[in-house]
Amino acid sequence: MAENPVLTFTEKGIYCPDGGFFIDPWRPVDHALITHGHSDHARWGHRRYLATHQALPVIRHRLGQIEAAGIAYGERLQIGGVTVSFHPAGHVPGSAQIAVERRGEVWVVSGDYKVEPDGLAEPFSPIRCHAFISECTFGLPVFRWQPQVQVMDDIGRWWAANAAAGKASILGAYSFGKAQRLMAGVAPIGPILTHGAVEEITAILRAQGYALPDTVRAVAGVDAKTHPGALVIAPPSALGSVWARKFGPAEEAFASGWMAVRGIRRRRALGTGFVVSDHADWDGLNTAIRATGCERVFVTHGYTAPFRHWLADQGYDAGIVATEYGDDVDDATAEIAE
User: Fold this and answer.
1) Is the dihedral of CA 148, 154, 157, 158 positive or negative?
2) What is the rounded CA–CA span in Å between residue 211 and residue 330?
3) For the chain, which domains are there?
4) What helix, strand, coil percent values describe the chain, rounded to 5?
5) pLDDT tens digit string along 20-36?
């Protein structure tokens, strides 16, 4: 690495020495720039936060009382000796890539991203840069997503078949981003019921102006009898739970990029899995990296070793950055006691 790089990698997170700030740090710091509201990227304990205006409502909901400021997409802000700007990442509503520029040299931190527009999150916008710090959650060729319209049609047919058989349809999906993407993308054939963790985020996004259908929070007294043929959207941890059993006869499914791996589906004892991810697939990762025009790539969280080798073979100066990010781990322990 060149002397005095724009960004460095520390035990607290990605750090900008000339700006005095961190990007998505996993240890408490004074000044944190946050790419999006999932809890592996937006953590409690920082003194000051900066995120897009669209991301802040969910971040505040999850972290409570914090000192935070918002920034518009594309707005340029001078911090110390660098200029920063936030650009759509396409991951979830409000998500951003963060560009850091110093004397004409641009580094971009991707956060989490996907390149296919989903009709809800602000579409991914590639940023020309010299160095790109990219996630690679699904950095293997086996991970190639079908077009969203096709997957939504598959989910719709599953829902319709269950309704015709007198069963509820319980769909597991991360409560922020994936859940709302599904409810907005599937053609409605009946009522949509939501777990409390999903409904709280849905209400926040709806109040911000994101186009979401009407939903009903599945509290006591709201079940398959009161809403026959319903689609129930809940965190993955709710599948197979006492909470899920209150809907009576039902079919369960899980929507995740990991459903592309048969072994994972078997371990979860799921008969049905829909391959839907808010992360870029193999082709998306390569498309995004090429679009930056960068020469240097650092890969984080995911299949980092094989993806780094692939990038090196393509002529990139490629390295691996150890981080403490995960696959939207905030929902792994979602409350299911309602």
Assistant:
1) negative
2) 24
3) 8-142+278-333 (3.60.15.10), 148-274 (3.40.50)
4) 25, 25, 50
5) 999 999 999 999 999 99
Dihedral pair phi/psi, residue 253, rounded to 5°: -150, 160
The residues facing 138 across adjacent strands are none
Phi, psi of 9 (to 5 degrees): -120, 120
Chain-centre distance for alpha carbon 263: 23
CA distance 33 to 73: 13
Instruction: Return the closest-CA partner of residue 140 out of 258, 319, 307.
Output: 307
**Is pLDDT at 331 greater than 50 in this prediction?**
no
Which phi and psi (to 5°) does residue 278 adopt?
A: -95, 10
- Kindly tell me if the per-residue pLDDT of 292 is higher than 70: yes
Closest CA to 330 of 134, 176, 120: 176
pTM over 0.85: yes
The residue to which tokens 């996993």 are assigned: 26
Of 78, 315, 58, the residue nearest 202 (C-alpha): 58
Supply 113's token pair.
């991203």
200's CB contacts (< 8 A; 6+ apart) are 61, 175
Q: How far apart are CA 1 and CA 280, in angstroms?
A: 27
State which H helix or E strand residue 150 sits in.
Answer: helix 148-164
